[in-house]
Amino acid sequence: AMAGGRFLTLLDSDDRWHPDKTRLQKAWLDDHPGYGMVVCDVARVTRDGHPIDTLHRRNAIPEDGEVLRWVLRDPTLVPASVMFRREVFESTGGFDTKLSTGEDLEFHLRVARDWKIGVIELVLATAMRGHDGLSASAGTYSDYVLALERFIPTVEDRLPAEQLASAVSLAYRRSARGLILEARWKEALQFVKRAWSRAPSLDERLQVLRLAPIAARRLGSAWRRR
Fold first, then answer.
1. pLDDT at 138 over 70
2. CB within 8 A of 211, min separation 6: which ones?
3. Long-range contacts of 131-140 (CB under 8 A, 24+ apart)
4. Computed from CA positions of residues 149, 154, 157, 163, in that sequence, does the dihedral angle turn out positive or negative?
5. Strand-pair category, 16-17 with 7-9
6. Percentage of the chain with pLDDT > 70?
7. d(CA 160, CA 199)
């Protein structure tokens, strides 16, 4: 809110911009006046700086422009990877400061609803993973699905009901998988049930059933350690 520039960028304390990021993203937005935000690929590293993988944004956003249907299915947003126009902040209000986690996902959803988004297919930022930041909070999964559930009614007239149900079921399924890997069984079961009930097709129910082998391996690993 205090920034006075025409373009806004974000940088968490444990992430890093690459030297050309600001120049290339500003040039991209200058060349695409109808777009509100542009994102880039991200190198993900351990707290010691060792490479983990690369987040290729094209995998989640296969086209530039009206990308709401894609962002609904994967609202992942590395804050250090974005640049957006000041008008985007003014129209959306920026991050919801009442959220303890998942505020970046919720912001991404609102921007995708109201603005065109583009992708620069270059690694222009580095983000740390596997640390004790907000994204490691125990409430992250619940915050993610709650943000999505609250957002869905605002776009019910924009996308087919089946697409919306599919996005919600996928969010439940992802959360269930994460909770299974953390051996938080009671919470995981609740999300499995919700994923099953919202799955709009047989194929998506089969995807829910594929969580069973993951749970079995996690239980087996815990049993061997005991």
1. no
2. 173, 176, 177, 180, 192
3. 131/14, 131/47, 133/12, 133/14, 134/100, 134/101, 135/101, 137/100, 137/101, 139/100, 139/101, 140/101, 140/102
4. negative
5. unpaired
6. 96
7. 14
19: CB partners within 8 A, 6+ apart: none
Instruction: For residue range 61-86, list pLDDT tens digits in order.
Output: 999 999 999 999 999 899 999 999 99
**What sign has the CA pseudo-torsion 182, 58, 81, 160?**
negative
Tokens of 90: 């003014």
- pLDDT score recorded for residue 1: 80
Give the tokens for residue 154: 């605002």
> 93 falls in which pLDDT band (50, 70, 90)?
confident
Place of tokens 């060349």: 31
